[in-house]
């Protein structure tokens, strides 16, 4: 199974934190991850790798984050169509936390919340 092409598969993990460099150093020492930096336009994105395989990303808190928002890991689930997934989410009682947006070179993503309050990101990968 290719998690980046299979609808419903968990495919990516991402840490939003106040000190991405310190977090990358911590997880590198803890798990043996190596870090490759990418410019995402809002600051560096630290892709974490095991060997040549990318396993996670670490980024600073996004602009407009609520004051005092704690650092947190989030996960992505692959979907075939972000728009259809968001429509289905709201029809089932969920909420759209961040509307669909394009991530150049990666795909289209959004953030949703289930009726119990858990937050999850969805991504339709390009390519």
Structure description:
This protein is an alpha+beta fold and 127 residues long. Helix content is 17%, strand content 46%. The protein has helices spanning 20-31, 82-91, and strands at residues 10-17, 34-39, 44-50, 53-60, 72-78, 95-103, 107-113, 119-125. It has an eight-stranded mixed beta sheet with strand order 2-3-4-1-5-8-7-6, with helices on one face. β6 (95-103) and β7 form a beta hairpin. The protein is globular and about 45 Å long. The two termini are 16 Å apart. 17% of the residues are buried. The model has no long low-confidence stretch (mean pLDDT 94).
Question: Can you give keywords for this protein?
Answer:
127 residues, alpha+beta, 2 helices
Classify the beta-strand content into a percent band.
over 45%
- Major beta-sheet overview: 8 strands, mixed
What portion of residues is helical? 10-25%
Uncertain segments of ≥5 residues (pLDDT<50)? none
Oligomer: single chain
* Biggest β-sheet: strands ordered side by side in the sheet: 2-3-4-1-5-8-7-6
- Determine Rg (CA atoms, Å): 15 Å
Cα distance, first to last residue?
Answer: 16 Å
What shape does the CA trace take? globular
Quickly describe the structure:
The chain has 2 helices and 8 strands, in the order E-H-E-E-E-E-H-E-E-E. The protein is an alpha+beta fold and 127 residues long. The protein has an 8-stranded mixed beta sheet with strand order 2-3-4-1-5-8-7-6, covered by helices on one side.
